[in-house]
Design goal:
Layout: E1 13-18, E2 23-27, E3 33-34, H1 43-50, H2 60-74, E4 82-86, H3 94-100, E5 104-108, E6 123-129, H4 138-148, E7 149-158, H5 165-169, E8 181-182, H6 185-194, E9 197-203, E10 206-211
Parallel strand pairs: 4-5, 4-6, 6-7
Antiparallel strand pairs: 1-2, 2-3, 3-8, 7-10, 9-10
Length: 214
């Protein structure tokens, strides 16, 4: 059966790993590793998993976790920058952290803050923490977010990265049934080049993409 990559839409894909629950394919072009659509959870089952999350802006540990993206991104922003936290979840926190530093923030979440009006606006920076691994159509979503960036804007992502097939087989990250798209550094570099963005990796699970002023 032909497997189309959900990031770049190419059809040259091969089985990368298989466990008791799911299959994982890798795209030969962009190197994304992905779970085929028929093995995804239903929307109701997916939301039930997210409802278990207990994230809150009052949780100092969670703030520290988000700080891995917040700190390097904050250093790049102009004082009047306007931001969007995409996939803000049941307890928006990163948007609160930026708002505390004087930034005007919007949030969007498919299940918890589904105001699609913000998806037609442009922003100086957009964050998506622990989001891309949940996307069934990462190519479509990331293209949309890149299109919402103002010239000179930043897209900050947080997701754990694929390294080797051996490490993947032992990786706790794939045991989450809502995780269906797995990026490597190579995947992000490919996507950045294709979309004329400059990419940097501030940490092992963070990515900052910069849109040129032109």
């Amino acid at each position: 059966m032909m497997r189309r990559c959900p990031l770049c839409a190419e059809t040259t894909t091969a089985l990368y790993h298989r466990d008791r629950r799911r299959d994982y394919y890798q795209c030969a072009t962009c190197k994304l590793v992905f779970v085929p659509p028929e093995q995804h959870l239903s929307a109701a089952a997916e939301k039930a998993e997210y409802d278990k999350h207990q994230n809150s802006p009052h949780d100092t540990g969670y703030r520290r976790f988000l700080g891995r993206l917040f700190t390097p991104l904050l250093a790049k922003l102009a004082a009047d920058a306007r931001g969007l936290d995409f996939g803000s979840g049941p307890g928006p926190t990163l948007s609160v952290m930026f708002a505390e530093h004087g930034f005007q923030m919007a949030i969007y979440d498919l299940y918890y803050a589904p105001d699609t009006a913000v998806l037609t606006q442009t922003f100086d920076f957009i964050t998506a923490t622990e989001v891309v691994e949940h996307l069934s159509q990462p190519g479509k979503v990331l293209e949309q977010l890149a299109g919402q960036l103002a010239p000179g804007g930043y897209l900050g992502l947080m997701t754990k990265r694929v390294s080797t097939p051996d490490a993947f087989a032992r990786w706790h990250y794939i045991s989450d049934p809502t995780h269906i798209s797995f990026f490597s550094e190579e995947t992000f570099r490919w996507w950045a080049q294709k979309n004329s963005l400059v990419v940097e990796f501030p940490g092992p699970d963070t990515v900052i993409l910069h849109k040129s002023l032109r």
